[in-house]
Design goal:
Layout: H1 4-26, H2 44-48, H3 52-75, E1 82-84, E2 92-93, E3 109-111, E4 113-119, H4 127-139, E5 143-150, E6 153-159, E7 164-171, E8 175-182, E9 185-186, H5 189-197, E10 209-210
Helix pairs in contact: 1-5, 3-5
Length: about 230
């Protein structure tokens, strides 16, 4: 099991390298507008006035929303156990978000991502397997599209209209994937990485599969900060 604080250290080091390259490439660019709103309707200026505690709590609300979206979509397919594709309690760099905003860097923005997959008995990757999810997406009033990668690999996408997107993949292998992601949010990416990871004890990690609705609990700001050094043996 990969230690979440070790993972954060790797992510931060890679992010720092990206920032350095970005600064060198963009040094001559003009002023960035602070009034550009993110997927949550907040401007960069508004978020930068928030404390890390406030951003942490806001991230927790967004985590709860993406968990709700994923759970309800999974249940349209199966209430049986799904395999986890990672334990992403921590944010991902805004530089790789679905939408890009002026001035977004690996330091001042992030997005959320979560995925599960299941092997559906008798699955063929056919259109009949994806149509129920398309119907569900449309019943929610979401913008829906279908990407036919091949005759037996289809991807249905839904934009929820409140800053999130769902994808459902059906493919001939029988592994069907449900992915929930957010668009870009302004925020202290590195500060949130550490604030979240340092409050998640190892005993709450290690889940590799579960029925829909089971997640690693998001910590509270009041939870104790873990003081151990996961990098001592590196």
């Amino acid at each position: 099991m990969m230690h979440i604080r070790w993972l954060v250290r790797v992510v931060v080091l890679l992010g720092a390298a990206m920032v350095a390259l970005g600064m060198a490439a963009c040094a001559e660019k003009v002023d960035v507008k602070m009034s550009v709103a993110d997927a949550g309707g907040l401007t960069r200026g508004e978020v930068e006035e928030m404390s890390l505690h406030e951003q942490f709590d806001l991230f927790g609300e967004r985590q709860a929303r993406i968990e709700q979206l994923l759970t309800e979509a999974q249940l349209q397919v199966s209430s049986e156990s799904w395999t986890w594709s990672g334990q992403m309690l921590i944010p991902s760099s805004g530089q790789t978000a679905l939408n890009q905003l002026p001035g977004a860097t690996a330091e001042n923005s992030y997005y959320l991502s979560m995925a599960r997959y299941i092997h559906v008995p008798g699955a063929t990757g056919g259109r009949e397997d994806i149509e129920p999810i398309i119907d569900y997406f449309e019943s929610q009033g979401w913008d829906v599209s279908l990407n036919e990668v091949s005759t037996d690999h289809l991807i249905a996408r839904a934009d929820t209209g409140d800053g999130y997107m769902l994808e459902y993949w059906v493919q001939a292998s029988g592994q069907y994937n449900m992915i929930a992601r957010s668009y870009l949010f302004w925020g202290d990416y590195r500060g949130l990485l550490y604030a979240i990871a340092d409050r998640v004890p190892d005993e709450k990690l290690g889940v590799s599969e579960s029925v829909p609705g089971v997640f690693t609990p998001f910590p509270k700001w009041s939870d104790p900060v873990i003081e151990d050094d996961p990098y001592a043996d590196l």
